[in-house]
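tokens incoming
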């Protein structure tokens, strides 16, 4: 079944992100899955955990209302096309991983053409072919049934705990205040992470 989010909302999502692309389509469908499963929760009831920093994260933020500033959009830098959602009230949770078959067999050719295009070595025909492939991939991702789009696993552990407000400490090297949990100790000094990285070689 094609995406059930209204065309108006999709267009607003595209405007929020800045362009339309296959990556954004993946995020739109992931958000659609969460909204369907949880019955359109409010932005304070949902928690989203994303394992990528790709375009689709903007769609999840826009469509679910989860944001980093509210503490209910959490980024885990795993480089996976995987998204977990939790409903704070009901305790429900699930993890959705993009099914590799959802992207059909276009990925390898798209990847090669994208590399050539980014280095300025693609011909006009190759640039056109890349555009056609991206358009076809986007159409496929927006029309696949959600059951074919994602591999879904129900989660039992509940949503990640809310962020805590902690004391700020002054970095003894740069003098900038830093959240306590983000400081490091080195040679008897309290340092922020960037300053710690300048003196500690094993990171």
């Amino acid at each position: 079944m094609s995406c059930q989010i209204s065309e108006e909302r999709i267009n607003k999502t595209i405007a929020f992100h800045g362009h339309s692309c296959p990556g954004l389509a993946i995020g739109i469908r992931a958000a659609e899955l969460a909204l369907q499963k949880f019955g359109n929760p409010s932005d304070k009831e949902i928690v989203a955990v994303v394992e990528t920093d790709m375009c689709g994260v903007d769609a999840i933020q826009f469509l679910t209302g989860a944001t980093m500033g509210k503490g209910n959009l959490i980024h885990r830098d795993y480089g996976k096309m995987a998204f977990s959602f939790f409903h704070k009230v009901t305790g429900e949770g699930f993890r959705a991983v993009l099914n590799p078959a959802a992207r059909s067999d276009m990925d390898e050719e798209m990847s090669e053409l994208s590399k050539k295009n980014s280095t300025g070595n693609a011909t006009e025909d190759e640039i056109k072919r890349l555009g056609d492939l991206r358009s076809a991939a986007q159409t496929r991702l927006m029309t696949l049934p959600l059951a074919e789009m994602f591999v879904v696993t129900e989660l039992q552990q509940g949503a990640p705990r809310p962020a805590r407000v902690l004391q700020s400490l002054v970095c003894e090297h740069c003098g900038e205040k830093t959240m306590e949990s983000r400081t490091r100790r080195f040679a008897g000094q309290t340092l922020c992470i960037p300053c710690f990285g300048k003196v500690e070689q094993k990171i």
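note: Residues 124-143 form the longest helix (20 residues).
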